[in-house]
Design goal:
alpha/beta; single chain; five-stranded parallel β-sheet
Length: about 190
């Protein structure tokens, strides 16, 4: 396994040196049946905030797919982060929101799913940047570290910002290329 990873890194280095990344912009997601659909999930620590955000999203006209959890009973955040990430990666939902205690673990899990770009945001600026610069399609939040009001402001900003393309497209394409290099090991 280690040799496969090392070989993949060598190949990546050689490819970067010999094959420049295209300057063509990464296309923004096409509107589809999932437009306006948002998958939302949380562990027990994020459950109360998930319920509040899901209500506000529905009130704002979004179709919300609730991936759980449905109580304060202890659960494992990877299960719910993975469920949200699958909804986004499959195209069933355009965006995903995952809430746990800190938001870090859920971002790590979601980013293991090909096609997902999860970003942890604790403020409005990082939310805006993750969408405009990094083409994020999943937002993670730390319920134990931000209040309900700020969480809603972050979600509103994140959903309102369009992919910036332009100078960011080349960098986003590199993220995709790295993902593709390592997905061959599956």
């Amino acid at each position: 396994m280690v040799s496969k990873i090392v070989d993949g890194m060598t190949s990546a280095e050689e490819q970067t040196e010999s094959t420049p990344v295209s300057d063509q912009p990464v296309p923004a997601p096409e509107p589809s049946a999932s437009s306006g659909h948002i998958a939302i999930g949380a562990d027990h620590g994020g459950y109360p905030l998930k319920e509040k955000l899901a209500f506000k999203l529905k009130e704002s006209g979004y179709e919300v797919i609730d991936c759980g959890t449905d109580s304060h009973d202890p659960v494992d955040y990877p299960d719910f982060a993975h469920a949200v990430a699958r909804e986004v990666a499959s195209g069933a939902c355009q965006w995903g929101i995952i809430i746990d205690g800190a938001g870090i673990g859920s971002a790590m899990v979601a980013n293991k799913v090909p096609g997902v770009r999860a970003a942890l945001s604790y403020d409005i600026s990082s939310a805006r940047n993750s969408r405009e610069h990094n083409h994020a399609n999943v937002l993670t939040l730390g319920a134990g570290l931000i209040g309900d009001g700020l969480a809603w402001q972050i979600v509103e900003e994140w959903l309102s910002v369009d992919w910036g393309e332009g100078r960011h497209a080349r960098r986003a394409a590199k993220i995709d290329e790295i993902e593709q290099q390592y997905s061959r090991f599956e």
